[in-house]
């Protein structure tokens, strides 16, 4: 089966576009959070206790930074409580379509009304639940999870907006690069000169060595897309905008699933023969090894997902924690040391952004290469 046929390309493109749009934000909770009452009064916990000391404020800020949100808050004035940013559209399916601005939530302090229904944001997980007019969210005493109905959420969240921005940026950059090739007889010009070496690097040092000269071309479009997509999202995460797309479990899961589908759909018979009836080993051992090899098929995309997610998420936590130390020390020595360390770590995070994009692309190419590798079982049988 060849991966480059048009129907399969359309299906994969649809998966890339649609999977991240299901706005299942990260559900990490603050490790220092103490179980609150079973019933929360007020608008989506609108009367929850705001942190007052510096350490609690920093911890709350880090928690909001790494989670997805339904608005872009650039900064806020603690004295007036005013937020500076812009809202994003909320799109829910709850016995019908509900579309409204996230400004109705007033940054999570009030319930939003839409066609007679009321919805509120849970401050613990950032998700939207159906409530009454007061915005009351009820939690199960045993599990601590909300018992309110949760509608299907297709909202344009901060993560989704960053994904769209990365896609548009990639489309513009590489359309310009292709046009410059056509105009200048195969010579790049403008901003394309910066990205051309990266394209050649993916081709010559990632795709060809891991997949082979014979099959690499049909995977190049995906490998280039995944490399620059992950790279741009990683770079966005280093800006002050509070974007943490590749530190979002849903995004990395979606990317890993696409690699998994391409690997197994395009795999040849030798790939599956190696999994279910491994050549070169005694037949009783083949029966034992078959389920282990099959388990490895699912472990590969899982490792892709966890590696990217954990590295980016942990990097954001560490960097924000070190920056927060400047406000805790309140001395020129401690604050200066924290600033210097955060600056060095920020430079290191740029390297990590490139490195994680490279690792994800390289491992994807390695899996593709194993799927199309041509084994010589007949020769092995004579040894």
Description:
- By secondary structure, the protein is mainly alpha-helical.
- The protein has ten helices and ten strands.
- The chain has helices at residues 6-18, 54-66, 158-183, 192-211, 217-236, 249-265, 269-276, 283-329, 332-372, 377-380, and strands spanning 39-40, 71-77, 82-87, 89-93, 97-101, 112-114, 117-121, 128-131, 137-138, 152-153.
- Helix 4 (192-211) crosses helix 9.
- The longest helix is centred in the C-terminal third of the chain and has 47 residues, at 283-329.
- Residues 1-8, 10-49 and 377-383 have low confidence and may be disordered.
Number of contiguous helices: 10
Mean pLDDT: 79
> What's the β-strand tally?
10
Relative helix content:
40-55%
Measured by DSSP, the beta-strand proportion falls in 5-15%
Shape: globular
Summarize the structure.
It is built from ten helices and ten strands. With 383 residues, the chain is mainly alpha-helical. It is globular, with a radius of gyration of 25 Å.
Q: Any descriptors?
A:
383 residues, mainly alpha, 3-stranded antiparallel β-sheet, 10 strands, 55% helix, globular, disordered C terminus
